From TrEMBL:
<keyword id="KW-0560">Oxidoreductase</keyword>
<dbReference type="GO" id="GO:0051213">
    <property type="term" value="F:dioxygenase activity"/>
</dbReference>
<protein>
    <submittedName>
        <fullName>Glyoxalase/bleomycin resistance/extradiol dioxygenase family protein</fullName>
    </submittedName>
</protein>
<dbReference type="InterPro" id="IPR004360">
    <property type="entry name" value="Glyas_Fos-R_dOase_dom"/>
</dbReference>
<keyword id="KW-0223">Dioxygenase</keyword>
<dbReference type="Pfam" id="PF00903">
    <property type="entry name" value="Glyoxalase"/>
</dbReference>
<dbReference type="InterPro" id="IPR037523">
    <property type="entry name" value="VOC_core"/>
</dbReference>
<dbReference type="InterPro" id="IPR029068">
    <property type="entry name" value="Glyas_Bleomycin-R_OHBP_Dase"/>
</dbReference>
<feature type="domain" description="VOC">
    <location>
        <begin position="3"/>
        <end position="128"/>
    </location>
</feature>
């Protein structure tokens, strides 16, 4: 299991960036896996997810100033670690950006917590495993 689940950042124009990344990442066998329309996003912009093996690990989105929407997500197979991250990050001075819980708008096993770091970057820890240590 990798430590990074995904990274996301804002771009000026999601369609321009989609075309760029589709071409630029093709030699790495990284393809566009999914597009999420504005009606399903927090910012009202379009999101494009790129990756391998049908899993989007790089996201770009518009309708937010580039640099302002930086997001990184760390992966774990234990929901208790999601909880521990949230508590430790808030205690360390982070700002709550979404307490631990299921995010059904992603899928029924997406258990995550979000904290803004001191510079406003959105840091997430996510457990997407439905079978390991999640009772």
């Amino acid at each position: 299991m990798t430590i990074l689940d995904h990274i996301e950042f804002a771009v000026r124009d999601a369609e321009v960036s989609r075309r760029f990344y589709e071409l630029a990442l093709a030699p790495l066998d990284i393809v566009r896996v999914i597009t999420v329309g504005p009606e399903r996003t927090r910012t009202g912009g379009t999101r494009h997810g790129f990756g391998k093996d049908r899993y989007p690990s790089l996201w770009v989105h518009d309708h937010e100033a580039p640099g302002a929407g930086m997001h990184i997500a760390f992966a774990t197979r234990d929901r208790a670690i999601v909880d521990a991250f949230y508590q430790a990050a808030v205690k360390a001075g982070g700002t709550d950006n979404g307490p631990p819980g299921i995010r059904t708008h992603y899928h029924e096993h997406y258990y995550a917590a979000y904290v803004l770091d001191p510079d406003g970057n959105n840091v997430e820890v996510v457990c997407q495993d439905a079978t390991i240590n999640n009772q």
